Amino acid sequence: MIDELLLLNRNSSIGDALRKVDRNGKGCVFVVDEEKHLCGILTDGDLRRILLQNDCGLKECIKEYVSAEFEYAYDTEPIEDLNKKITDRIRILPIVDKNMYIVDYFEMSNKIYVPVAHPQLHGNELKYLMDAFLSTWISSKGAYIDRFEKEFAEYCQCEYGVTTANGTVALHLALMALGIGAGDEVIVPDITFAATINAVLYTGAVPVIVDIEKDSWCISPDEIEKAITEKTKAIIPVHIYGQPCDMERINKIAKEHGLYVVEDCAEAHGAEFDGHKVGSMGDIGCFSFFGNKVITTGEGGCCVTHNRELYERMRILRDHGMSPERKYYHERVGYNYRMTNLQAAIGCAQLEQIEEIQEMRNSLDNIYRQKLKNISFIEMQENNLEKRKKILWLFTILAEDEKKKEWCMGKLKENGIDSRPFFIPLSEMEIYKKYVFSSSISSMISKRGLNLPTSYDITEDIVDRIAQILGEREN
Ligand SMILES: *Cc1c(COP(=O)(O)O)cnc(C)c1O
Question: Helical H runs in 319-452?
Fold first, then answer.
């Protein structure tokens, strides 16, 4: 229901109109007839002009002063069209049904913005979810769990999959299964989401933060080599923003020093290095299916591996450490890190569309690169590095410096376009500082970076608008 303070009967006086405008705080009233059909709009500016130009009093009826021409929208119009109608001049827009009956209004402050990411749920998601629900297998056993684990592992060119409640616990589970704990060191990149380092800290091991490569933005193999000590047990390469790490060099280093490799693939479902899918190149690969990732289960995660022993260990640890042979007998302190059958049902439907989703994202990547290439201050993440097949997670650009990045984010925001700052290097956060080994490139890149909207419904028009907004200062 629309607030009565916004509505004014067309037989009211100018004084009534001014009082309503004063009280509703919107700077205008919608003029309606007895049946609440919209007849016009009066803004406080209009009312001032009427009083000044017509030499009339406050008691006079507004009816003859209401202009027949005004902006409104139908309740069937898509939100994008409403957005277009809202401008600096028209800050509030009445919404009517086909009979001109007023039903709602739209204003500058709820001008819809283009979000950075939102999931694409256009396949069998609801169907499978209903099916899982109606089967009553809504907890962590059920046909969709088995199917999703099998199919996702297959997609990653791996033998085994262990689904989890989210990507963070997938990392923790992997490290636990490898026996990592107090007294060990684990090497992580300075640029990542904090879950990577948190998972290391959960185990009691000491994380060692190393710098990234300048072109790929992934963990630097040179820095890994320098940071290795006798205590080093594992490396967690993070395939950042969809860019695969140099797994050839990382695996070579790991082999030379007898280290485990846990791939953090939370942002890179389907990316490849030298024809191998991410997740299949280390001892264990960990994925997240959070709502903003390439595919989603709402919350969710998965560990993939070729190693049967690790697989079995992860399953036991995920299920309270309970012996598979002897019910309620616990061999280790375990966890409840399970995914539900409901989440897996969504996952199965998402997986059916993953190629299509990848294709869409690829084409968006190309559109962005094409449209932004002439803006001289913008640099983009390399997408053609040797042997690496990058996928698009969040489209990310670097501005020439921090000030320019802030200018970009501000300009986009003014135009209703959401953006995100680059990950803050772990080395710049108080709680992680003490674990830093090296960090100069990461802090330089992070200051300049921002993520642009990356979803299936970002059209060429929206990218054009973004290019126009960002290119503005140059022209
Ligand atoms: C999202 C993300 C995670 C954590 O995944 P959740 O499912 O949100 O717990 C871990 N690592 C990286 C690099 C991520 O981007």
Answer: 341-352, 354-372, 402-414, 440-448
